[in-house]
Amino acid sequence: MFERPYCHHLIHRLKEQKSFIQVLMGPRQVGKSTLAGQALAKLDSPNLFVSADAVPNTGEVWLEQQWEAARLQYKASGAKEFILAIDEIQKIGNWSEVVKKLWDEDTRSGRAIKVVLLGSSRLLLQQELTESLAGRFETTYLGHWSFDEMYNAFV
Known about the structure:
Number of helices: 6
CATH topology: Rossmann fold
Helix content: 40-55%
CATH class: Alpha Beta
Number of domains: 1
Structural class: alpha/beta
Strand content: 15-25%
Radius of gyration: 15 Å
CATH architecture: 3-Layer(aba) Sandwich
Number of strands: 5
Mean pLDDT: 90
Low-confidence stretches: none
């Protein structure tokens, strides 16, 4: 399977000590979910990949439940770190406030849970990120495939 160059960047960031939430954003159907899955598969850390694609209006509760599941899996694994990846994060109302609260709780408690957020609504993501999560995230923008990527993938 073809890997976009962004995959190596994400792997590198996730191998580092926990410092920033990794945010993958870009238009629909550019390979954000595939890229995150490829990166997680190459890492030794246990992980949980969930999608908010069909989450009902009680999305904040769902988000907290997924985060708690990651905490439980992290504790049960005995691993030194854990990765929680949440796809389509923009579909959850007030997601940035919930993420801020949970990220800060984990940081204060010394939990090495690294977080990857994926979303396709750039404007919405940027607004939520700058308002609530300032200083806590690093973004990677995935655009449409370049000619070289398409050539290498399909020729």
